[in-house]
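tokens incoming
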């Protein structure tokens, strides 16, 4: 799913008040982080990921995690990444992405 810049801005706005659900600590990126992110995306669709450690590699790790989870990397601001993956079942979708004309 390719998101437009306006859709990304909309999702950033929705994520503003969210608390980070997944934390990347001293162990860095591992299977536990990927599984936790998968579960969080299944439950929430939109989530924040905080980098407590490995802050220098946060962009690369965020892209890797988005690829592994089939999610969209919305943005990386400070030490927080925002990820989005729309629910596959239309009945379980919590976030309705607006369609913006160019």
């Amino acid at each position: 799913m390719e998101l437009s810049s306006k859709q990304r801005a909309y999702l950033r706005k929705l994520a503003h008040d969210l608390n980070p659900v997944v934390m990347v600590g001293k162990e860095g990126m591992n299977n536990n982080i990927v599984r936790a992110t998968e579960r969080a995306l299944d439950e929430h669709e939109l989530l924040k990921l905080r980098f407590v450690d490995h802050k220098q590699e946060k962009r690369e790790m965020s892209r890797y995690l988005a690829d592994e989870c089939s999610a969209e990397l919305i943005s990386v601001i400070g030490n927080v990444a925002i990820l989005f993956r729309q629910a596959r079942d239309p009945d379980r979708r919590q976030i309705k992405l607006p369609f913006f004309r160019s």
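note: The domain at 5-87 is CATH 3.30.110.60 (Translation Initiation Factor IF3).
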